[in-house]
Amino acid sequence: MKNTGPVWQFAKNCADRFLISVFVLFPQSSVLPTDFNDVYDFYKKGNYDTLVKVSRVALRKEEIDYRILLLYTSAEKDPEEIDKTLRSIYEKKGSHPGIFYNSVFLFLERCLVLEDESSGIYWGKIFSENGTSSVRYAEGLYTYACILYEAGKFSEAKQILIKLRELKSAEKLAKKIRILELSVEKKRSKDVKALKVQAGKLKGKSIETPIAVAGNTNFTPAILKKSVFDIVGSLVLKGRLILEKSVFVDFFAGSGQMALEAMSRGFARVVLYELAWERSDNLRKLFAKFSDNYEVSRKDVFRFYNKLDIPEKSKIYFLDPPYSFWDKKKEKIKSLLDFLLKADATVAVFVQSPIDPNWSGFETRKFGKNFLTFRVNGVWDVSLLPNENASEISEDISSFHQNED
């Protein structure tokens, strides 16, 4: 890479602007009395190759002069070397001054131009969370939002832009922010088309993709959702389920699309559990538009499932735990299902997962990279039958599955 072009010129200009404040805010280190002067002299003379060599040595020392890091980041030709150096310094200490995040900002600009999404997203997240002391915090957030946009992470980009709007220092970026916001919304509207109510009184209603939590935005594919409600529909046709007397419970609700589908198809009530603050608030706003027969609860399902207060006798449970849970919490998920199945005679459970859990007594179907595992209790809607016959109504689950096919 030659020392030309917009990225290089931008980095050089930023370094020039920073250096004036650096001398005032960060006095010369007593541990390294000449290192910065030497490096800065190379910078002024345009001797960037030597600057990089000297800086690499200086930055390996125990005490880091962050002014050298700033010059190094602006002059280093190899982005992988910058990434490696920043990570080494970042991991040495628990906190860093604003000038460290100035260097991160310069690297984010380079990641954007070089389309290095992996490094850009990694450092963008760190900068967003810890870089508030940087004099380039607003520009850094904007750059991070651009990287997320280019990576197709439109929901995450929107959240960064919302955060950016709250900064007074972002006023000079208002026009750029607005243009990016419009682009993000246009892209997100295309994604929203995949999250539509498929049937019932709300058919065709679009649902926003869920707000990312820890980078995760997985949601239920349309074909898997259709399969769930096809099975539910077969129960209705066989007279085994009366929707008007049943509740649909959506654990790990995310976008709420499964519960909204259930509401649209005629369930008496829907109950949603979502632990993330912003997601749960959005769910309340969404469902308030359509009905009063809903409940949104912000609770940890694994801690409170044995205290659930759902009075309806006929229940359908749907669970789509974060896919990361299947590495360490598979047994917790199974314990939750076992409790739900034992707690009520009239219950069906559906679980979406990235793997086949291979549980005895459950049926599993594969849809692309996703699996749907389900079980229907043997006794169904006994409360709807004459009392004298209730005890006689029991059907083996295996025969139900055979009839389904």
Mean pLDDT: 81
- In terms of quaternary structure, the protein is single chain
From the alpha-carbon coordinates, what is the Rg to the nearest angstrom? Answer: 28 Å
What count of structural domains? 2
Quote the CATH topology of the largest domain.
Answer: Rossmann fold
Overall, the morphology is elongated
Distance N to C terminus? 61 Å
For the record, what CATH class of the largest domain applies? Answer: Alpha Beta
Could you tell me the strand content as a percent range?
5-15%
Number of strands: 7
* SSE arrangement, N to C: HHHHHHHHHHHEHEHEHEHHEEEHH
Which stretches of 5+ consecutive residues score pLDDT under 50? Answer: 19-34, 379-405
Instruction: Kindly name the structural category.
Output: alpha/beta
Description of the structure:
This protein has 405 residues and is α/β, with parallel strands linked by helices. The protein has 2 domains: 5-135; 222-404, Vaccinia Virus protein VP39 (Rossmann fold, 3-Layer(aba) Sandwich). It is built from 18 helices and 7 strands. The chain has helices at 5-25, 35-45, 48-58, 66-75, 79-92, 98-114, 117-130, 137-150, 154-165, 174-192, 222-237, 257-265, 277-288, 301-304, 325-328, 330-343, 387-390, 397-404, and strands spanning 246-251, 269-273, 294-297, 314-319, 347-353, 363-367, 370-376. A 7-stranded mixed beta sheet has the order 3-2-1-4-5-7-6, sandwiched between helices. Helix 12 (257-265) links the parallel strand 1 (246-251) and strand 2 (269-273). The longest helix has 21 residues, at 5-25.
